[in-house]
Amino acid sequence: MATYVLVHGAWHTGELFEAVAAPIRAAGHVVHCPTLAGNRAGDPRTLGLDAAIASLVGYLEDNDLNDIVLVGHSYGGMVITGAADRVPGRIRRLVYWNAFVPNDGECLNDMVPPLYVGLFDAVSSASPDNSVMLPYPIWREAFMNDGSGEDAEAAFNKLNPHPYATFTDKIRLTKSPAEMEIAKSYINCTEDTALPQSLGWHPRLSEKLGLFRLVQIPGSHELCFTDPDALAAAILKAGRD
Question: Whole-prediction pTM value?
Fold first, then answer.
């Protein structure tokens, strides 16, 4: 039995990982699905990356979680990297699912196309709390392109405005991921076009991990909605010893 902590991406909450957690729990493992600071109900959308990382570290410490498999999706890759740098002794393996892999001094916006940066700059500047929301056409065509239109709309309606500072804040690490002694895995969904294929997730970002296990499966950036059982199986494969 292992302990898995599933860390959501931007616009999501931990609750949206519960369909993925269920088959992992059915396989005999313990699974936690925390919601990061900035995405919890009532949180100010002005919070930054340090607050999100601190909320995850606090969750691990408050629940006395050790020897964990820490899984991060998309933006969650920023947060699990920061947590691993702060409390490496609690983590058995890092698993990045189509996630950003930052080196020291990088922010999420350093790893996305200029088109996204321009879009998010414009959306956040028009927001009273500097939050950003993903436009539905991008969600449908690039993020959840492997589900029905009805399912895509239903999932989109569960999302929440995201604190833009978490995209622009530069992470501070004592060790970049390739230097970390923690074991690492990368799950790559092959139909994920949330980033353009010319600037894709793998191998552009995955290779920043140094030595890592690669697990590739069919699916979009939002496989947690379209095929949670397949994603759970990939997480188990990525997280095994």
Answer: 0.98
